[in-house]
Amino acid sequence: MEKIVLIGGKAGLGAARTSILLGKIFTRMGYYVFNYRDYPSLIRGGHNFNVLKISTKPVFSHDSNYDAIIAFDQLTIDLHEKKLNKDGFIIGDKSLKSDKLIPLDIDNIVEKVGVKKIFGNNAMIGALLRAMSIDPDEAIVTIEKEFKESEKAKQVFNIGYDVSEEKTILEKPDNKPKYFLTGNQAIAAGAIVGGLDIYFAYPMTPATAVLHHIADMQKKYNVNAVQLEDEISVINAALGASYAGARTMVGTSGGGFSLMTEAISMQGITEIPLVVYLSQRTGPSTGVPTYTEQGDLKFALNAGQGEFIRIVVAPGDANECFYRTAEALYLADKFRTLVILLGDKHVAEDNYTVEEFSKPILHDKFIINPNSDYKSYELTSTGISPRAVPGQGAVVRASSYEHDEYGYTVEDEEKVKLMKDKRILKLKPIIEEINKLNPITVYGTGDNLIVGWGSTKGAIIDALNELENTRFLQISYISPFPAELVEKELKNSKNIILIENNQTGLLGDIIREKTGIKIENKLLKYNGRPFTKKEIIDGVSKWLK
To answer: Of 209, 176, 181, 213, whose CA–CA distance to 33 is shortest?
Structure first.
């Protein structure tokens, strides 16, 4: 059973808030819900809409045809009614025009209860649940948790429920309540569970919410959320805090990441542990700032001057955002390296249903108590120098210049080469560690293979159920690239289809570079919007035939 509901209206009317509240109601009842957000770069006005997919089975993407519409204005009806299914219906104020409208007198309802007009959205929620034959008590518990003025919110909800009519019956789920959260919320939670001490950021869509979520939790979990004046300050402050022993992380999008590249190079030579959350949006430049794209992959792999090791990991949904973030903090500390957590607007801001989280094992920070002859960059067989921090009785050096084992500046050709070789030695133990973390995942069975990364996972997983003889290779760790594992899957496939949210197939280029295999069949989307299940099915089927 699947039902799809669109909630739309001008920015400021509460479309996002209403869709999230509905999502929480349904996930509490045991349904699986996915929520897609579509909004322009406006604080007021424009047209915002959310698409909720509600199902008795796991769902990870949205669709473009609807069973119901909650319309906060006439424009929502004008734009989306044509995609309403045959038996679909619309919930809205009586002033709106549609043959399929279930009309509500919103002004009269809010006046009767004595609340602001925005509370009228609860009447529409009530009307929708009545139309879907849902017991109103299922929603009351959620409303009580979400509203300070819960009694008045419940009154408005009940009036909307009572004046509506039953249109369809939802099959009841046989499941327990679930979590309903965005990728950004999962990243914030994963960072805290992963031992985060300080998160630095300057607000930039779509990474901003991580700063807000960590700030909300900082007193409870004894972490710090720090907003500075720009991204250059952010990353340099983070390196300073990490040098002093704090487990640190920064967050930004493409424009902010551009400003960070000089300090990223400094990380490469100082070997100060650092995690950077890079949440992609549509570029180049400011581009389309509130929409999604996977266009920064090669930028993440190559940003900064010179050659140095970095780890790049791309989670595909909220569940992975949680675990991969904890992994990123662990890997950065253990190997004194840079880890880039590569997301995008789609995975960052859309809501996923998550069954539950089992707490990852918290690891030590790999900080030693040094002796008086401590070497900040001691030569070891693994390339990993024991890490100490200032204040422990020994001098701890970090420099943007090339250096010897003690951290003193060198320009001698032999010593320069020796230190570069030391840093590259870390690659082997890093690969061994990442191989334990499943750098690739294969879903389904079949001779045909879909290849993707990051947020395309959701629509591909949903489409896989309707694609015969087809499996999906998700590549999560893109640097170091798991070439042998990927090559094995590619060589054992009949038809290979690359799916990416960018214009040229960036992952395909990397696969060819690392394995020598060129993927000819490419399904690419680069208009700022993520794939739907139908687009995947239609696009892939032409090659399977």
So the answer is: 181
